[in-house]
Amino acid sequence: MAAQKYKSASRKRKINNVVVHVALSILAVIWLFPIFWVIMTSFRAEKGSYVSSFLPDAFTLDNYIKLFTDTTILNFPKMFTNTLIIAIFSCILSTFYVLAVSYCLSRLKFKLRKPYMNMAMILGLFPGFMSMIAVYFILKALGLTEGALIRVALILCYSGGAGLGFQIAKGFFDTVPRAIDEAALIDGCTRWQIFTKITLPLSKPIIIYTILTSFMSPWLDFIFAKVICRANSDQYTIAIGLWRMLEKEYIDSWYTSFAAGAVLISIPIAILFLCLQRFYVDGMSGAVKG
Predict the structure, then answer these.
(1) pLDDT tens for residues 140-169?
(2) What family is reported (predicted)?
(3) Among residues 142, 145, 214, 217, which is most buried (max CB within 10 A)?
(4) What's the half-sphere exposure (Cβ side, CA atoms, 13 Å) at 46?
């Protein structure tokens, strides 16, 4: 009797495993299909957005070459450089703001602390682009909407309100034992020394997460970049450039280059993730051991 029950349970377990693996395989195909399609399109020799077959009739690298050589209409290298500069500086500032605000709300006790957190939670329910018109006129009054200062304006837009996204980092800092801070204070450390030399080295996972999200937001944003850049084509970001490639006057000649550009913009994010993944895993293992 016990053997029959064991065989029945084993059979059910195998069936469940097969069903789960089949479902996950189907989901993986669904998720990977668009990526595979974009990559195949980026190597397609035929022009235009309408084709008769999924796989290209002929493969070519001309679509990638065109992005960096044909700058008469859409200057992709310039857009790539603009976006990279904006994303790097926004990432640095946003990461510092988020971690600093999160640490203060986690460790320091001050008046209006809870009202501030409640207000931040409420403001987080509204999408950021609701304020873009007001933000634009403020930046215009400061003279930051013309020329090279547009980069500064976008950096301020992406990093200025980053501190409101403190919830996840604060939750992580709450898990760091307060006894460490108290021992450091007894030894004569300041709050800044505790934050930079003790808390941050123990918080690698949340630092990596914050860096990744802070970099991806300006790298992929379209709305704020479009509103602030307007007709200043020399200050366009990649998102605006890719959008213009799909306009009716450009789509026939730039569609396959659009796919090539979509592949290229994923490379910096992939490199950043691969470089930081080791620190993320090390930090998680250290947290588990502690």
Answers:
(1) 888 888 888 899 999 998 988 888 888 888
(2) Belongs to the binding-protein-dependent transport system permease family. MalFG subfamily.
(3) 214
(4) 13
The verdict on pTM exceeding 0.70 is yes
5, with CB counted inside 10 A (0-12, 13-18, 19+), is exposed
- CB-neighbour burial class of residue 216 (10 A; exposed 0-12, middle 13-18, buried 19+): middle
Which residue stretches of the chain have pLDDT < 70? 1-7, 52, 279-290
**By C-alpha distance, which of 84, 34, 47, 59 is closest to 245?**
47
> Phi and psi at residue 44, in whole multiples of 5°?
-80, 135
The closest of 105, 222, 123, 109 to 173, measured between CA atoms, is: 105
Radius of gyration of the chain (CA): 25
Q: Which of 158, 125, 145 is nearest to 231 (CA)?
A: 145
Task: Tell me the helix, strand and coil percentages in the chain, rounded to 5.
Answer: 80, 0, 20
Q: Are 194 and 212 in contact (CB under 8 A)?
A: no
Q: Tell me the CA distances in angstroms from 149 to 74, 143, 268, one per residue in order.
A: 21, 8, 24
> For the residues of 121-186, what is the DSSP string, one character each?
HHHTTS-GGGGHHHHHHHHHHTT-SSTTHHHHHHHHHHHHTGGG--HHHHHHHHHS-HHHHHHHHH
Rounded Cα gap, residues 183 and 179, in angstroms:
6
Among candidates 223, 264, 236, which has minimal Cα distance to 65?
Answer: 264
Summarised one tens digit per residue, pLDDT across range 101-117 is: 999 888 888 888 888 88
CA terminus-to-terminus distance, the chain: 46
